[in-house]
C-alpha cells in the first residue's frame, strides 16, 4: 500500500535549482530536436485541493517522524507548488528541513528538468546540491551534463564540470564545456570559466571567461567573433564587445585585425528615450598599410527627435576620409557603388490641413563626381485640406530654397508657388476629374549677367476612366476591365536661361503616362499637349481580394512638338511614346511572373524590356530567372536559386551577366547545412568593381549555433540579398 503525506509548511520552492537558459532564444525556423525525458511521474497525481505551498509526499513505504529523519522508499514522489521530485529512496529531516534522495533521482521545476544520482537539499535555506546531473532547459531547448550542481542561494546556481548543447544530448554535434558555469537568476546573467566550444569532439574555440544572458534581457559582454576575407584586404577578424550601458542605450566596440591593412576600431552607440532615438557609428583605421591615404575613417550619425504631437527633427550625416574608402573597405557591391554621402538636418510639423518643413542639406561627393547643390536652407509649406464630398479640392504649396556650394554651376535662390484646383465626378462605374494647376517661380542668381528670373506656367488636365467587371469560372474569380484616358495641356514657356538646380528627365514607365510634368523638380516645366490612352485588366479572388493577374497597356499621343529641354539636350521628337505593356500574375500557386515591355510602333521593335519569373514551393525550392535590356544601352540576365539536396543540405547560387559586353557582373555560389541545433553557410563571391575592370573575390563562412548565436561573417545577409525568397 502506498503511503501519502501532505504538510502545510510554507517552504520556499523545493529544490529551487532554477537554471535559466544559458543564452536567450529568439530564433524561429529551426528543426525540432528530440526532447530528453528526465522525469517519470509514476502515475502520481497531486490532490487538487492542496494549497500550492504544501509539501505532498507519496511512497511505497515510509516511516514518518514529527522530529528527526523520516525515510521513504519505493517510487518516492515529493511535490510542492510547481516542483516535483522522484527517487527510489528519500529522507526528510525536521526541523532542519533537509531532504535527500538517491537512486534514479529526478526533479522538475518551471525552468528545468534534472535527473541525477544523488540529491541533498535544504528547504528552509533553498541551498543544496545534486551529483552527476543530466539537465534540460525547456525555455532554451537546451540540455547537458554537470558533475555537480550546487544551489548556493535562492538566486545563485553553480554547475561544476558541465556541458551545454541544444543538440540531442546522446550525440551532440556541438557542445559548450566549462569548468564552472554560474547562473545568477536575480541579475539574469551567467558566467563561464575555462569554456571550450567543441564541434563533435573537436575543440574549435577556447574562452577563459565570458558572460551571457539567461533571458532575452541585454547584457554586456563579448559577442561572437566574425571573420571574412577578400583580395583587397585579406583576412579580417573582428571581436565585438557589447556594452549594455542602460536599458535605453548601448555601445558596441569592434576591434578588427585586417591582415593587409592593420588594426581597425569600429564603434556603434544607440539610444532611445521618450522623445529621441538614433545611433552614432564611427570606424577608424589609423594606418592603412595597403594604401597611401594613411588614416581612414567612416562615420554615420542618425537622430530623430519628437518636439510635440506633430513636430519632429531628423538628422542624418554620413562621411568618409577619402573617395576610395568604400572601394577598398566596403563589404558589398552596393557599398562600392556609392557616389555621394548625404548630410541633412530637417524639421517637420503639420496641422489638420497644412504641413511645414525646413531642411539643411549637402553632400560629400566621391570618386571625382559633380557635387549636387547644397540646400541651405529649403523651406516647404503645403496646404492640403480634407476632401469634402463632391466639392472642389484645392491644394497649395510654397517653397523657398537657397542653392549653394557649387564651384562649377550657378548658385542662387528659388521661390516657388503652386496651387491646384480639381473636382471629381464619379459613379460606381466611371469617373471624370478635371484639374487646373498654376505655378509661379522666382529666381535670384549669383550670375552678374542674369540675376533675376521669373516664370509662370498654367497646366490643365482631364482624367477619366471606367470600371467594368464580370464573374468568371462560375463566380470563383472576378475580372475587371479598366479603360482610362488622360489629357494634359501645358503651354510653352522659355526656360533655357533658368539654371538646373534639382530637375532631371523622368524615366518613362507606366505611371509616368499619367503625370503632368515630364521633369522632376521645379526648374523645368515641360510643355505638353498630349493624350494618354490605356487599358488594364485584373483577375481577383472575391473571397480574399487576392490579385491573381494584372495586365496593362498604354501610350501617349503628342499633338505638339516638345520644346522645353535640359541643358545640352535636343528636344524630344515623335508624335507618340513607346507602347508600354505590363503584366504580373501567378502562373500557379508556386510561380509568379512579372514583365514589362516598351514597344516602338514605328520601328516595330522592342526598345526595352524586362521579365522576371519567381518560383518557390512548399519544399523551399527557389528559382528566380530575370532578363532586362534597353536597345543600344545594356542587356543583362540573372539567375538565382536555393535547392535542398536532402533534409540537411541546401545548394544556393546567384549569377548576373552583362550580355552586351559579354562579362559576368557577379557570381555567388554557396551551400548551407542545417540540423536541429546548428547551421553553417559557406559562400564564394566574385564581382566587378566600379572601375569596370577590376574584379574581387571574397569567401564568407558562417556558423550559427542554436542558442549561442553566429560565428563568422554575414553570409546569410549576402544570400538573402542575392536570392529572392531565401530565408
Question: What does this entry look like structurally?
Answer:
- It is found in: Cell outer membrane.
- Residues 295-645 form the LptD C-terminal domain.
- Belongs to the LptD family.
- This is LPS-assembly protein LptD.
- The protein is mostly beta strands and 727 residues long.
- Among the domains are: 3-219, Sandwich (lipopolysaccharide transport protein A fold); 220-338, no CATH class; 608-727, no CATH class.
- It is built from 3 helices and 44 strands.
- It has a 26-stranded antiparallel barrel.
- The model is unreliable at 6-28 (pLDDT under 50).
- By secondary-structure content and strand pairing, the structural class works out as mainly beta
Q: Could you tell me the radius of gyration in angstroms? A: 35 Å
Helicity range: under 10%
Overall, the morphology is elongated
Mean pLDDT: 86
* Euclidean distance between termini CA atoms: 58 Å
Instruction: Report low-confidence residues grouped into runs of 5 or more.
Output: 6-28
Number of strands: 44
Reported by name, the CATH topology of the domain at 3-219 is: lipopolysaccharide transport protein A fold
Please outline the major beta sheet: 26 strands, antiparallel, barrel
**Count of discrete alpha- or pi-helical segments spanning 4 or more residues:** 3
CATH superfamily annotation of the domain at 3-219: Lipopolysaccharide (LPS) transport protein A like domain
Which percent band covers the strand fraction?
over 45%
CATH-level-2 architecture of the domain at 3-219 = Sandwich
Q: CATH class of the domain at 3-219, please?
A: Mainly Beta
InterPro entries: LipoPS_assembly_LptD (IPR020889), LptD (IPR050218), LptD_2 (IPR045659), LptD_C (IPR007543), OstA-like_N (IPR005653)
Subunit structure: Component of the lipopolysaccharide transport and assembly complex. Interacts with LptE and LptA.
Domain LPS-assembly protein LptD central: 193-273
Domain Organic solvent tolerance-like N-terminal: 56-188
Amino acid at each position: 500500500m502506498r503511503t501519502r503525506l501532505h504538510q502545510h509548511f510554507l517552504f520556499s520552492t523545493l529544490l529551487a535549482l532554477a537554471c535559466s537558459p544559458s543564452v536567450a532564444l529568439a530564433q524561429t525556423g529551426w528543426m525540432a530536436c528530440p526532447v530528453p525525458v528526465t522525469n517519470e511521474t509514476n502515475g502520481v497525481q497531486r490532490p487538487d485541493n492542496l494549497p500550492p505551498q504544501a509539501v505532498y509526499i507519496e511512497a511505497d513505504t515510509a516511516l514518518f517522524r514529527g522530529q528527526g529523519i523520516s525515510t521513504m522508499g519505493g517510487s518516492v514522489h515529493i511535490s510542492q507548488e510547481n516542483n516535483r521530485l522522484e527517487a527510489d529512496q528519500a529522507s526528510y529531516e525536521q526541523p532542519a528541513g533537509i531532504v535527500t534522495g538517491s537512486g534514479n533521482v529526478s526533479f522538475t521545476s518551471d525552468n528545468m528538468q534534472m535527473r541525477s544520482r544523488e540529491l541533498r537539499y535544504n528547504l528552509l535555506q533553498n541551498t543544496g546540491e545534486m551529483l552527476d546531473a543530466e539537465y534540460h532547459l525547456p525555455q532554451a531547448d537546451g540540455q547537458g551534463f554537470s558533475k555537480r550542481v550546487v544551489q548556493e542561494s535562492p538566486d545563485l546556481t553553480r554547475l561544476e564540470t558541465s556541458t551545454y548543447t541544444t543538440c540531442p544530448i546522446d550525440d551532440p554535434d556541438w557542445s559548450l564545456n566549462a569548468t564552472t558555469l554560474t547562473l545568477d537568476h536575480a541579475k539574469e546573467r551567467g558566467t563561464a570559466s575555462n569554456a571550450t566550444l567543441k564541434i563533435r569532439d573537436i575543440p574549435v574555440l577556447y574562452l577563459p571567461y565570458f558572460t551571457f544572458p539567461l533571458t532575452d534581457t541585454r547584457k554586456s559582454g563579448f559577442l561572437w567573433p566574425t571573420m571574412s576575407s577578400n583580395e583587397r584586404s585579406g583576412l579580417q577578424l573582428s571581436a565585438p564587445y557589447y556594452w549594455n550601458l542602460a536599458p535605453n542605450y548601448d555601445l558596441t566596440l569592434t576591434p578588427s585585425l585586417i591582415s593587409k591593412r592593420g588594426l581597425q576600431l569600429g564603434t556603434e552607440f544607440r539610444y532611445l528615450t521618450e522623445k529621441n532615438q538614433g545611433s552614432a557609428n564611427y570606424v577608424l583605421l589609423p594606418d592603412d598599410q595597403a594604401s597611401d591615404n594613411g588614416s581612414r575613417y567612416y562615420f554615420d550619425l542618425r537622430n530623430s527627435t519628437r518636439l510635440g504631437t506633430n513636430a519632429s527633427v531628423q538628422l542624418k550625416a554620413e562621411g568618409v576620409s577619402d573617395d576610395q574608402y568604400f572601394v577598398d573597405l566596403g563589404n558589398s557591391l552596393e557599398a562600392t557603388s556609392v557616389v555621394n554621402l548625404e548630410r541633412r538636418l530637417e524639421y517637420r510639423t503639420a496641422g489638420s490641413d497644412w504641413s511645414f518643413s525646413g531642411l539643411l542639406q549637402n553632400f560629400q561627393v566621391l570618386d571625382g563626381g559633380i557635387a549636387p547643390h547644397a540646400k541651405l536652407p529649403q523651406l516647404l509649406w503645403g496646404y492640403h485640406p480634407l476632401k469634402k464630398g463632391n466639392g472642389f479640392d484645392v491644394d497649395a504649396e510654397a517653397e523657398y530654397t537657397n542653392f549653394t556650394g557649387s564651384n562649377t554651376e550657378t548658385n542662387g535662390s528659388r521661390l516657388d508657388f503652386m496651387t491646384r484646383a480639381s473636382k471629381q465626378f464619379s459613379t460606381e462605374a466611371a469617373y471624370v476629374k478635371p484639374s487646373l494647376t498654376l505655378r509661379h517661380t522666382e529666381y535670384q542668381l549669383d550670375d552678374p549677367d542674369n540675376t533675376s528670373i521669373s516664370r509662370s506656367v498654367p497646366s490643365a488636365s482631364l482624367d477619366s476612366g471606367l470600371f467594368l467587371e464580370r464573374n468568371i469560372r462560375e463566380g470563383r474569380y472576378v475580372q475587371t476591365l479598366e479603360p482610362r484616358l488622360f489629357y494634359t495641356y501645358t503651354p510653352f514657356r522659355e526656360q533655357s536661361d533658368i539654371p538646373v538646380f534639382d530637375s532631371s528627365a523622368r524615366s518613362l514607365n507606366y505611371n509616368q503616362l499619367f503625370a503632368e510634368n515630364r521633369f522632376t523638380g521645379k526648374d523645368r516645366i515641360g510643355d505638353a499637349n498630349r493624350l494618354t490612352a490605356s487599358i488594364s485588366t485584373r483577375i481577383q479572388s472575391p473571397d480574399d481580394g487576392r490579385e491573381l493577374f494584372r495586365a496593362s497597356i498604354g501610350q501617349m499621343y503628342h499633338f505638339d512638338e516638345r520644346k522645353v529641354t535640359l541643358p545640352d539636350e535636343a528636344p524630344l521628337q515623335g508624335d507618340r511614346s513607346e507602347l508600354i505593356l505590363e503584366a504580373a500574375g501567378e502562373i500557379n500557386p508556386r510561380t509568379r511572373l512579372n514583365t514589362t515591355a516598351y514597344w516602338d510602333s514605328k520601328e516595330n521593335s522592342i526598345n526595352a524590356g524586362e521579365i522576371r519569373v519567381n518560383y518557390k514551393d512548399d519544399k523551399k525550392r527557389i528559382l528566380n530567372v530575370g532578363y532586362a535590356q534597353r536597345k543600344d544601352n545594356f542587356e543583362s540576365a540573372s539567375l538565382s536559386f536555393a535547392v535542398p539536396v536532402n533534409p540537411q543540405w541546401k545548394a544556393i547560387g546567384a549569377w548576373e551577366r552583362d550580355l552586351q559586353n559579354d562579362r559576368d557582373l557577379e557570381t555567388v555560389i554557396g551551400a548551407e547545412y542545417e540540423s536541429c541545433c546548428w547551421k553553417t553557410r559557406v559562400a564564394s563571391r566574385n564581382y566587378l568593381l566600379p572601375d569596370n575592370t577590376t574584379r574581387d573575390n571574397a569567401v564568407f563562412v558562417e556558423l550559427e549555433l542554436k542558442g549561442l548565436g553566429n560565428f563568422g561573417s554575414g553570409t546569410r545577409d549576402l544570400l538573402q540579398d542575392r536570392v529572392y525568397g531565401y530565408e
